[in-house]
Amino acid sequence: MSKEVNPDLVKERKACTFNVTELVHIIDGGEQATKERKEVEEMVLQIKDIRDKVPEEYLSHKERYENAVRKTVLMVEVLKEHALRHSSFDAYKPSNMYRIQSGIVKDISPFMLHMGMFVPTIFGQASPEQMSEWLPKALSLQIVGTYAQTELGHGTFLRGLETTATYDPKTEEFIINSPTITSYKWWPGGLAQTANHCIVVAQLYSKGQCYGVHPFFVQIRDLETHVPLPGVKVGEIGPKLGFQTANNGFLGFQNFRIPRNCMLMKNSQVLKDGTYVKSKSDKLTYGTMVLIRVMIVADAAYEIGRAATIAVRYSAVRHQSKPKPDQPEPQIIDYVTQQHKLFIAIATSHAFRITGTWLWDTYSKVVADLGQGKLDQLPELHAIACCLKAVCSRDASACVEQCRLACGGHGFMLSSNLPIIYGLVTATVTYEGEYTVMMLQTARYLVKAWKQAVDGTALTPTVAYLLNYLNNSGRKWDNTPEGIIAGFQAVAAGKIKEAYEAIQRHQKEGHDYEDSWNLASVQLVNASDAHCRAILCEVFFTEVQKLSSTISAPLALVLQQLAELYLTYWTLEKGGDLLVHSSITKNDLVWQRQRYEQLLAVIRPNAVGLVDSFDVRDEILNSTLGAYDGRVYERLFEEAMKSPLNQEPVNSSFHKYIKPFIEKSKL
Amino acid sequence: MSKTKVNDDLQRERDKCTFNVTELINIIDGGIQKTEERKKQEDMVLKEGIHLEQVPSEYLSHKEKYELAVKKACLLFKVIRRMQEEENAGMENYRAVLGGKLGSAILQDGSPLTLHYVMFIPTLMGQASVEQQVHWIGRAFDLNIIGTYAQTELGHGTFIRGLETTATYDPKTKEFVLHSPTLTSYKWWPGGLAHTANYCIVMAQLYTKGQCHGIHPFIVQLRDEETHMPLKGIKIGEIGVKLGMNGTNNGFLGFEQVRIPREHMLMKNSKVLEDGTYVNSPSSKLAYGTMMFVRVVLVTDMCNYMAKAVTIAMRYSAVRRQSQPKPNEPEPQILDYLTQQHKLLIGVASVHAFRLNADWLWNMYNNVTAELDAGDLERLPELHALSCCLKAVSTADAAECVERCRLACGGHGYMLSSNLPSTYGLTTAACTYEGENTVLLLQTARYLVKAWQQAIGGHTLTPTVSYIATVNSGRRLPPWENTIEGIITGFQRVAAGKIGLCVSNIEKRQKTGLSYEDAWNITSVQLASASEAHCRAILLYTYYTETEKLVETVSPALKHVLVQLVDLYVVYWALQRLGDLLRFTSISEKDIDELQKWYEDLLTKLRPNAVGLVDAFDIRDEILRSALGAYDGRVYERLMEEAMKSPLNAEPVNSSFHKYLKPFMQGKL
Predict the structure, then answer these.
(1) Does A414 touch chain B (CB under 8 A)?
(2) ipTM
(3) Which pTM value belongs to this model?
(4) Of A162, A303, A401, A432, catalytic
(5) Given B437, B644, B661, which is nearest A69 (Cβ)?
(6) Which of A463, B324, B455, B597 is the right S-S partner for A449, CB 3.0 to 4.6 Å?
């Protein structure tokens, strides 16, 4: 079998009109970042036995976990120093530097929450003394930690947690307890068999009074033997749709005692005698939460990029049907329905990456202000981060699934890697704040902003469009990107207004505010969604405009086409909303439809170049359908041949079950 | 914790249900008698205990999963065989264990024997000559031989004419020579093919006397009946792990000049005579039969999957409590949140909508096949068009519905023990198999474009597209009516409007010099959307009219609820498709406001019956297999019990600690 690059892909790459390397650098955040990323990738790939001979999907659940631990420690050992050099605040800026890890452990490492939550929480919530004691150990991985908040019966609603930490001034200890089955911690990654430490979020009781949930630093296993400490009940929660090697666990406590100084005391404190000292602002703990949401937006961009790479390359290699009798079967990427499914994914990846960076910049500014005691921008940041987390995770799931289905049956094969990517992405819809709950949190902010707008109070930047809408609601539609953005802002404003009025109507009918809110909540979610779409469109378009002046003309043109495609796609998707809330006409929609079809046609020659620019190497892509060389069918076959079932011509079950069964019927 | 006690919240929900659940169960089953038969069947199969697992199969390796699936499949069909002997029953027992219900209690991730019954035997019945049937069908029914059906190839799916496997007739030995000339010609996907089946129907390009006559079915022995070793020239194995259906043993198959007797070509329709002469079948349309049958059955399967998912999510939402909107009150059941009702109640309505549409399509299928047998082919194209778009829309809607139910359960829906992920796997697979959805929508679009042209030409249209003529006859848009009938008419206008736009776009593009096929391609996003709109109009119309008929004979309390569900379904889709309605009908913003209020009002009205409605799907716990959805609502206890079955939880410290983790943490790796 030939090892050469598939000729269709060669042809596609020749047809590309822009410099792929230039775009690779932009996506990485500069030439230097690309170089470093590639160095990290090489470092990891050089590790002996780091690649699996038998794909992990064939192993039992237990074997998969053991293999993931093996590979993760080998990898972390090599990356530790590199990572330590980058362990400042900026290390959390979204980047693709360490993506190789998800190539090696495809379905989440059991260490993920160590760097993802354990360390940041110590950073954000431990006092300076606590930090100097715990952080070096954590960063050098002398201890492995995780973060336990969610309980079996309690998720998004933090105040409902049941785990208690009761202060005993006699011994100067907290006593941790899980009073019910629903109070068991449930879900934390790495908690089951991997971590020996854990941040536990529990209801703090002191002097007979409850002070709400606070974080505690708890050792759960013996450092030498790894046996769970007395009073700790810990184990795994079982197999899931994805995250098979994340080692998600449960955790229960029975009168488990920890020293007083294991409460994380940067903000609130409990003194030796049990006196509770409140933190200056309860908003301070928002920080880590927002950070995680920034990462979710950036991850969504990356995973859509992976899925699009696989589906676009496969669609360039796959041929199907014969619309014209005398011509060969066309590449399926030449079908407009296929372009319709895939190009929006490419555009969305760019939209989310750019919005993620924008959100990070906003976040770092707010964090800097927080350091100086300024808290007033926090609510706005929180509101944006909530709806972006929700919408990006949902859109990413839809894009990835669309890419998978666009590969027909072969997308159903795990060797395409698309099902695994879907598992990673769809998990983000419900974790770290469930979709609908997030949307309703943003809606609270929007309703408040609407009231302020009506009262003529000044508005924060991301909702300033409400004033334009109130002052100038008759704006004439125009078929330009700016016109579309204004149109989406009109939709958002219109929906916020409607939802607000619905609440008022329900109140007039005699419902209290919360019941009225609930009765209007389907509309409130829609309003949040419209608000978020307006932000995504505006940020994507304006950032691409800014970028365009600094890059080569051919690339600028392509990025502008992608931004316009994104706007046009959503104009058509939301035609009904625009017809109701803006002055768009039916004829404008016909025009937009034609423009959309034109954009698909102009993007078509660059499709493969665009996904090549995501620069996801084969070892991270892990896909038979998406590899750079396009040897789709050979790779599908090679992967299949790795199946343990294919190592023997007759499986033992034939003699054990089938043959006796058949023979009985012959009698 | 008492094992038998039902969760208080669920009990309260059941107490307040306003209709008789049993009455609805009987309707769904098709009568009291049918319910009894189903329950008896379930009892007989489940009392064998084949479904019980000490360690759930998700924990096993891929190979062990297969071996367990074979074991269970054999035990299951042994029971069925006994039941058949005892009762001399018809096909009902088979259909029950092969469908998405009882069968999935035993083999939740697919069975390696399914294609034997679903494709191998039906193809023999449909395409083998009488003599061939005598020879093969008895053996197949008795499971003396295990078969499957191989059509799709590694490089070729929906486009059947593109298949590469060849069957070349050799008149000297009166044999066909089967051959796989390329890697892309390897058969790829058939269930049970890898290590289970010993026979297979193979679709291949027929060559005789140097000429190609297109694809035809052949029956081929793959493995020795005694040793199960692959026969000479047969390259066979499994294709690997998939998103779901990991018990089905999907395989690949290649031939190296494999010879089979001439009589192994299935010759009910076309034939090859001994001297190699090819005799064409009376109609090439006859081969449609099996394909359409499968699509009709698929719509029913989709109902079952949706019913499962919505049962799980609804019961969980009645048990789960969250947040505290009012400071002095307990956390509400999440089912009391309107956003949750919005996600779930449409699921209940969709099950009924697709169920009634499936029944309607089934009747039509039977009528058309009866006409076919009488030589009348006239309604075949219409049935084909209908089954294509209904397959596409029902599978897409079902996948979306199942996924929405899963997400509505928050993180716990992500657990395999909820059974929602594997239900999604089974559902989403149907979006691409048996005709990829976009391809199918475009097939229906061909029919619609033709119908449009007929309407313009003043010809009479077949019943399911006759609305095109009605819509075209009026010059002006009639006033909008905010009623169920008004919305349905609105959807017909949308469909007709979209078809008309497609036709004019294609014509315009042809005038710019494009060929018809290129013009078609550029317009294809719109064509698929027109096809979907047509299907929506049919779904709404059929659901509405069939329910009207149905409720004539039911109790007033139940009638009330069934009508509310129809209203909910119709209004939901109107709100989903506002853009289309605004473009093609005279609906106003005020009408839309009214619809939104109507919708929210319906949610509130249906809320008290939410649990009763899913109880009426009557899916017993062994079939539901869900920690979140069991009848007793012991959600948290079951989640924990399931977790404790994990082999990782059987030991306090996993060996990887000593092997890798400890040396690593101590810097000794």
Answers:
(1) yes
(2) 0.95
(3) 0.96
(4) A432
(5) B661
(6) A463
